[in-house]
From TrEMBL:
Organism for this UniProt entry: Sneathiella marina
Keyword Oxidoreductase in record: yes
Top-rank lineage group of the source organism: Bacteria
InterPro entries, per the entry: FAD-binding_Monooxygenases (IPR050775), FAD/NAD-bd_sf (IPR036188), Flavin_mOase-like (IPR020946)
Pfam families associated with the record: FMO-like
Protein's name in the database: NAD(P)/FAD-dependent oxidoreductase
UniProt keywords, alphabetically: FAD, Flavoprotein, Monooxygenase, NADP, Oxidoreductase
Family stated for the protein in its record: Belongs to the FAD-binding monooxygenase family.
Length: 529
């Protein structure tokens, strides 16, 4: 084997890439990982904005492949900060000696499949090439930042930031007039902290989000001890759930109980905090009438917190709860009671332009020193689309996905043999708990590569029919829910011109069962040759 030849090339050194490397290396494969960032961590390397935290509880948003690891690591809070999660990633990399196979600060420009040798040639933007039988794309599903093409966006002379590409030297907003565009999870998390620093914060909101209080705080040692003592049980419970984490979904239907009972259930969930609110009733995401009751409840809470009823009204979403990912907040709505915070509704009065000195809206210029884009990502496909990936017959992935992203199981693409994606479109990852989804994909892919080695196969490829059936099933499952009713990034609707296709597969447990069945039936839907 030459120096530039490997069994597997992995692109990305976030949690997916790190575990992929570890798992494949343990099985004796030679692996090379390329990472665009200067260090490990992926999402948690880039998203360093004030208030960045995970919205899944720390004891669940963590690896389970090593019991020693899950026992030894101590999480300080219910919802860990970006910094703590990154420290955890570093601990994992050190513990399993992962860095020696990772090349940092390296963008991948091209990947070409050679049909004669059944191998991939990967080319970096510096022109370095490596050859491998297999490639695994661990490029993340929320990693390609979206900056909207607002007129004059490059003319602003102050500091500009995107929450998903936050500078490593923390900006100081003290005494500054700051504008922030976007009120999704990143906006909701950062707005309260930026408001504490800034002289004045202007929030440009297009669509309000539903936010549920986190009630974050240090873990109770007894709670942590019990969870860790029974980790196996809790992890299994999560795998057997719809979402891959413990939402404690109530089996009752919302409209089958009295109004008073329903309110009491919502109240209890609200006090518990976090995404478990969505588990208040079994049919919240399938029955509009049921969903309306939850929406009314949250709107009522917003009005309770926000002093000015007009601002409360503007902050109150009219969309389906949970249709876009709910935000988990700390003092978000309370922030609008501050005198130094102004909410500007850009659905009512759009931004005309970004200028050298601020933002012009309705002919009036709002002067700003700093401008923050909390405008999200070209989700699930963006990072892959940036690489010129050429499969069989020189077809590029961009061409293949021109009408919408299609995969088989969210891990393989017809026409792109020996290439795997972790948490790709068609996988349940973004509507589930990302960590167990990543671990599952990694293990499934690694098993498949291993199976290929054991059976002397050189090429593994998803069939077009299997892929079409998977896409149809993904959309069919979504069509029985309220998910397709809003302009979410799940549908690609946040990016102008992006083809609309519902990308996440609904149902974590169902997905795991499908993947297992496909293997048991001899990798049904794949050709192994
Ligand atoms: P999101 O959830 O995609 O939020 C992006 C926000 O930016 C959202 O409020 C958008 O409004 C807003 N946006 C985007 N383009 C514009 C323009 N042109 N004008 C005004 N407002 C705009 O991204 P996040 O980073 O907050 O969260 C991503 C995920 O990370 C989240 O789902 C969690 O899983 C963690 P819109 O709703 O499109 O009207």
């Amino acid at each position: 084997m030459t120096k530039n030849s490997y069994d597997v090339v992995v692109v990305g050194a976030g949690f997916a890439g790190l575990y992929m490397l570890h798992n494949l290396r343990n099985r004796g494969f030679s692996v090379k990982v390329f990472e665009a960032g200067g260090d490990i961590g992926g999402t948690w390397y880039w998203n360093r904005y004030p208030g960045a935290r995970c919205d899944v509880e720390s004891l669940e948003y963590s690896y389970q492949f090593s019991d020693e690891l899950q026992q030894e690591w101590v999480w300080s809070e219910r919802y860990a900060t970006q910094g703590e999660i990154l420290r955890y990633a570093h601990h994992v990399a050190d513990r399993f000696d992962l860095r020696r196979d990772i090349q940092f600060d390296t963008h991948i420009a091209e990947m070409d499949f050679d049909e004669a040798s059944n191998s991939w040639k990967t080319t970096t933007s510096d022109g370095e090439t490596v050859v491998s039988r297999f490639c695994v794309m661990a490029t993340g599903c929320l990693s390609s930042t979206n900056i909207p093409s607002i007129e004059g966006r490059n003319t602003f002379s102050g500091g500009t930031y995107h929450t998903g590409n936050w500078p490593h030297t923390e900006p100081d907003f003290t005494g500054k007039k700051v504008g922030i565009i976007g009120t999704g999870s990143s906006g909701v998390q950062s707005i309260p902290l930026i408001a504490e620093q800034a002289e004045h914060l202007y929030v440009f909101q297009r669509t309000p989000s539903y936010a549920i209080p986190a009630y974050n705080g240090p873990y109770d040692p007894e709670y942590e001890r019990e969870r860790k003592a029974n980790y196996k049980f809790y992890r299994e419970e999560a795998k057997n759930s719809r979402s891959g984490f413990l939402l404690a979904i109530n089996e009752d239907m919302a409209m089958d109980v009295s109004d008073a009972e329903r309110q009491a259930v919502y109240e209890k969930r609200w006090k518990r905090g976090g995404l478990t609110f969505l588990g208040a009733f079994n049919d919240l995401l399938t029955n509009k009438e049921a969903n309306d009751t939850a929406a009314d409840f949250v709107r009522g809470k917003i009005h309770d917190v926000v002093d000015d009823p007009k601002i409360a009204e503007k902050l109150s979403p009219q969309t389906v709860v949970g249709c876009k990912r709910m935000c988990v907040d700390t003092n978000y709505y309370q922030t609008y009671n501050r005198e130094n915070v102004t909410l500007l509704d850009v659905s009512e009065q759009p931004i005309d332009a970004i200028t050298e000195t601020g933002i012009r809206r309705g002919g009036i210029e709002i002067e700003l020193d700093e401008l923050v884009f909390a405008t999200g990502f070209d989700a699930m496909t963006g990072a892959l689309a940036k690489i010129n990936i050429q499969g069989r017959n020189k077809t590029t992935l961009k061409e293949k996905w021109a009408e919408g992203a299609k995969t088989y199981l969210g891990v393989a693409i017809s026409g792109f043999p020996n290439l795997f994606i972790i948490t790709g479109p068609g996988s349940p990852s973004v509507l589930a708990n990302m960590m167990p989804a990543i671990e599952h994909h990694v293990e499934w892919i690694s098993d498949c590569i291993n199976h290929c080695r054991d059976t002397n196969c050189n090429r593994v490829e998803a069939s077009n029919d299997a892929e079409e059936a998977w896409v149809a099933q993904t959309n069919e499952l979504a069509s029985h829910t309220l998910f397709p009713t809003c302009n979410s990034w799940y549908l690609g609707a946040n990016i102008p011109g992006k083809p609309r296709i519902f990308m996440p597969y609904l149902g974590f447990q169902r997905y795991l069962a499908a993947c297992e069945e496909i293997v048991n039936e001899g990798y049904k839907g794949f050709s192994l040759s």
